[in-house]
């Protein structure tokens, strides 16, 4: 398991961490999505849902920060914005080690990234969080926008696509993989960090902890409780499967390859 933290002690940082971790319920990554009959989106009936993989990485990183830096983290709060069933992934987060959770129940309505960011801003203020760690994107819409929008709304520094997170004094040092190397950023609290796949390998929740999590309290709110009115700015007109690709052709010689390329007008 890859380690992504360096040792730091509570005495080094002047303020304790109050970490907010947004987690999203999505169709399980191992399932191939299917277009619904109305061609308005992906079929969601009768399919398995789980925590978004990037959110799971963000959750794992928060837990590692708490474990590696005794006394530094005051609390880890997980929040999910979705249907009532999304409380399942919050129970999973509790089983893995988060302290408290909130479900912002939006029913079956799809919430756009800007609205998600506005809701998260209200939760940040409510929980008095000083660091938000979230997945860089969700595997259902692949928007990769929420973290950036949240940082903009909060007017906080941001570090996206983190592959390593460290602490040095009052600074948070984030490493990002870029073409041909690594990009290192330094910021002070408060800060928004979005996580990349290589940051860590998430743990599994043990069965005893899963059973205990079922009895733990879970806060439930509506967007209106946070002063947010959901309003869509985008409309999906039609969703279609990509065209089926024709199978490749195996050639026996360079001359045949050139002939085929000319046939397909590639050269």
From TrEMBL:
<dbReference type="InterPro" id="IPR012255">
    <property type="entry name" value="ETF_b"/>
</dbReference>
<dbReference type="InterPro" id="IPR014729">
    <property type="entry name" value="Rossmann-like_a/b/a_fold"/>
</dbReference>
<dbReference type="Pfam" id="PF01012">
    <property type="entry name" value="ETF"/>
</dbReference>
<keyword id="KW-0813">Transport</keyword>
<dbReference type="GO" id="GO:0009063">
    <property type="term" value="P:amino acid catabolic process"/>
</dbReference>
<dbReference type="GO" id="GO:0033539">
    <property type="term" value="P:fatty acid beta-oxidation using acyl-CoA dehydrogenase"/>
</dbReference>
<feature type="domain" description="Electron transfer flavoprotein alpha/beta-subunit N-terminal">
    <location>
        <begin position="39"/>
        <end position="230"/>
    </location>
</feature>
<keyword id="KW-0496">Mitochondrion</keyword>
<comment type="similarity">
    <text>Belongs to the ETF beta-subunit/FixA family.</text>
</comment>
<comment type="function">
    <text>The electron transfer flavoprotein serves as a specific electron acceptor for several dehydrogenases, including five acyl-CoA dehydrogenases, glutaryl-CoA and sarcosine dehydrogenase. It transfers the electrons to the main mitochondrial respiratory chain via ETF-ubiquinone oxidoreductase (ETF dehydrogenase).</text>
</comment>
<keyword id="KW-0249">Electron transport</keyword>
<dbReference type="GO" id="GO:0005759">
    <property type="term" value="C:mitochondrial matrix"/>
</dbReference>
<dbReference type="InterPro" id="IPR014730">
    <property type="entry name" value="ETF_a/b_N"/>
</dbReference>
<dbReference type="GO" id="GO:0009055">
    <property type="term" value="F:electron transfer activity"/>
</dbReference>
<protein>
    <recommendedName>
        <fullName>Probable electron transfer flavoprotein subunit beta</fullName>
    </recommendedName>
</protein>
<comment type="subunit">
    <text>Heterodimer of an alpha and a beta subunit.</text>
</comment>
<dbReference type="InterPro" id="IPR033948">
    <property type="entry name" value="ETF_beta_N"/>
</dbReference>
């Amino acid at each position: 398991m890859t380690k992504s933290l360096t040792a730091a002690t509570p005495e080094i940082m002047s303020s304790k961490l109050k970490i907010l971790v947004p987690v999203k319920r999505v169709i399980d990554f191992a399932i191939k999505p299917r277009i619904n009959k109305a061609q308005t989106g992906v079929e969601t009936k009768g399919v398995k849902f789980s925590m978004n993989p990037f959110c799971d990485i963000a959750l794992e990183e928060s837990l590692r920060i708490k474990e590696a830096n005794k006394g530094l983290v005051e609390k880890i709060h997980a929040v999910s914005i979705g249907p009532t069933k999304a409380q399942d992934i919050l129970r999973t987060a509790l089983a893995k080690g988060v302290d408290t959770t909130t479900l912002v129940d939006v029913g079956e309505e799809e919430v756009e990234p800007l609205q998600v960011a506005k809701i998260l801003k209200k939760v940040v203020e409510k929980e008095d969080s000083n660091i938000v760690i979230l997945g860089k994107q969700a595997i259902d819409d692949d928007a990769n926008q929420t973290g950036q929008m949240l940082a903009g709304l909060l007017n906080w520094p941001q570090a996206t696509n983190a592959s390593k997170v460290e602490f040095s004094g009052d600074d948070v040092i984030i490493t990002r993989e870029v073409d041909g190397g690594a990009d290192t950023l330094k910021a002070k609290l408060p800060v928004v960090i979005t996580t990349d796949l290589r940051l860590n390998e998430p743990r599994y929740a043990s069965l005893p902890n899963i059973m205990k999590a079922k009895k733990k309290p879970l806060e439930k709110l509506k967007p209106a409780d946070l002063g947010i009115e959901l309003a869509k700015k985008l409309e999906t007109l039609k969703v279609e499967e990509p065209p089926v690709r024709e199978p490749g052709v195996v050639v026996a010689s360079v001359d045949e390859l050139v002939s085929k390329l000319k046939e397909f007008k590639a050269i």
